[in-house]
Amino acid sequence: MNENLRDALDNMYDARIPSLWMKISWESSTLGFWFTELLERTAQFSAWIYEARPKVFWMTGFFNPQGFLTAMRQEVTRAHKGWALDSVVLFNEVCRAFKEEINSSPSEGVYVHGLYLDGASWDRKNCRLFKKSHCGM
What we know:
With 137 residues, the chain is of the alpha+beta class. The chain contains four helices and four strands, in the order H-H-H-E-H-E-E-E. Strand 3 (120-123) and strand 4 form a beta hairpin. The mean pLDDT is 90.
C-alpha cells in the first residue's frame, strides 16, 4: 500500500476529504458533504447534457463559477450584434420566487440559486439585506 492510498483511507475513516482529492477538487467540511455535493453536481451536469438546459443553475455547484458567468456574458454578447464582451456587465436581481417555482429561463441571462452570505442575512419579505444578530456563545 503506497502513502497516497494510506492517507486516503485514513482520511475516509475520519470522514475527511483525502488531501490528494483536495488538490483537484472543491472544499467541503466533511467527506459526507463532499460526496453529497458530488452527486448534486453530477445530477446538474447530467440533466444539462442529456435533457435540456436548466431553467435555474446551482451556482455553487460549479468548480469555476467565474467561468460560467463569463460564458453567460459571451452568450448575451453574441445575441446582440455590435456588442463587445468587455462592455457587457453583470446585473443581478433577486427574485421572490423559489427555484422550484421558476418554469422558464429568462429572456436574457440566467437564474441561479445556492448563493451564500457572510455577515448578513436576506429578508425575503422586504427583499433586502439585514445585519445578522449576534448570538451569545
